[in-house]
């Protein structure tokens, strides 16, 4: 089971630095605080290209629902296809497993969208043009934002919570889409240890509706950790509800892409956001 944890951590992206600085023409603003919990800060890092197009992409930093950290210059290559097209990227960290479980983690990423939308002008992005992407657990969380958003609570004392967490486009790499069979049955993933009656609320497969944003799913057909039927089943739901959606199958790939497979996937992600966030 340890190899499964390692494979998830390979696709985890975590970012940190002491002050804003430029890398390859990209301004990086680290550790923007979007909330607090239990005395700790929830943070994201901003990657802003010189020729920014006014559109923001949230990348959910999560593998196995762990949200880890490394200096941002070590991760900029992963975002390069989006940065090259002028997208401003927000690398969002959430309260991490094993301390936090999935229902709590979902609320963190919801808050990140609300915060970025509320402060959109500060980051030079349009509040109505926010996309979200992630891999594995990050893909799951991205789909939760795509399928189960809300309008915000107009009566909330916290101004962030009054803002909608809706996104305008989603890209999800090899995402778990139905957690009902996993909750309290996968000891290697502590974030899945929560009340079983909440599993349906945390399963994007069960929240698909006709007003969902365009979704691109990318999955290897040899994935043994998150089988491709997770993407196939939610694709069928998207099609049933006439949601703009596609599934890009990477033949022969397992849980994670390298080399040409990785380039094909990242180029498809950037093209999806370009099509659905810039051309409308």
The first-level CATH class is given as: Alpha Beta
Radius of gyration: 17 Å
Order of strands across the main sheet: 1-2-3-5-4-6-7-8-9
**Uncertain spans, ≥5 residues at pLDDT below 50?**
1-22
Question: What is the number of independent domains?
Answer: 1
CATH architecture: 3-Layer(aba) Sandwich
How is this structure best described in words?
By secondary structure, the protein is α/β, with parallel strands linked by helices. The chain is built from seven helices and nine strands, in the order αββββαβααβαββαβα. It has a single domain, classed as Alpha/Beta hydrolase fold, catalytic domain (Rossmann fold). A nine-stranded mixed beta sheet has the order 1-2-3-5-4-6-7-8-9, sandwiched between helices. β6, α5 and β7 form a beta-alpha-beta unit. The chain is globular, with a radius of gyration of 17 Å.
Q: Top keywords for this entry?
A:
single chain, 280 residues, alpha/beta, Rossmann fold, nine-stranded mixed sheet, 21% strand
List the helices and strands and how they pair.
Elements (H helix, E strand, L loop, with lengths): L1 H9 L10 E3 L2 E12 L2 E10 L6 E6 L14 H9 L3 E6 L8 H17 L1 H4 L6 E6 L1 H11 L21 E5 L41 E6 L8 H12 L4 E6 L8 H20 L2
Parallel strand pairs: 4-5, 4-6, 6-7, 7-8, 8-9
Antiparallel strand pairs: 1-2, 2-3, 3-5
Helix pairs in contact: 2-7
Précis, in short:
By secondary structure, the protein is α/β, with parallel strands linked by helices.
């Amino acid at each position: 089971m340890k190899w499964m944890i390692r494979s998830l951590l390979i696709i985890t992206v975590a970012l940190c630095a002491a002050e804003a600085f430029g890398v390859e023409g990209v301004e990086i603003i680290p550790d923007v605080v979007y909330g607090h919990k239990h005395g700790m800060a929830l943070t994201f890092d901003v990657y802003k290209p010189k020729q920014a197009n006014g559109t923001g992409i949230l990348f959910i930093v999560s593998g196995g629902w762990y949200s880890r950290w490394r200096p941002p210059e070590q991760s900029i290559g992963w975002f390069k296809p989006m940065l090259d097209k002028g997208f401003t990227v927000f690398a969002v960290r959430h309260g991490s497993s094993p301390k936090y479980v999935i229902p709590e983690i979902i609320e963190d990423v919801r808050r990140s969208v609300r915060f970025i939308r509320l402060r959109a002008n500060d980051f030079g992005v349009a509040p109505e043009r926010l996309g979200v992407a992630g891999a594995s657990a990050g893909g799951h969380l991205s789909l939760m934002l795509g399928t189960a958003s809300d309008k915000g609570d107009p009566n909330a004392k916290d101004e962030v919570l009054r803002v909608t967490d809706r996104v305008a486009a989603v890209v999800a790499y090899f995402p778990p889409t139905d957690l009902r069979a996993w909750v309290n049955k996968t000891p290697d993933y502590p974030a899945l240890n929560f009340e079983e009656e909440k599993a349906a609320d945390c399963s994007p497969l069960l929240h698909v509706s006709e007003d969902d944003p365009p979704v691109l799913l990318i999955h290897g057909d040899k994935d043994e950790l998150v089988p491709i039927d997770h993407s196939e089943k939610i694709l069928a739901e998207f099609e049933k509800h006439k949601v703009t959606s596609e599934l890009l199958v990477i033949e022969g790939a397992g849980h994670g892409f390298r080399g040409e497979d990785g380039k094909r996937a990242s180029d498809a992600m950037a093209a999806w956001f370009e099509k659905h966030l810039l051309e409308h």
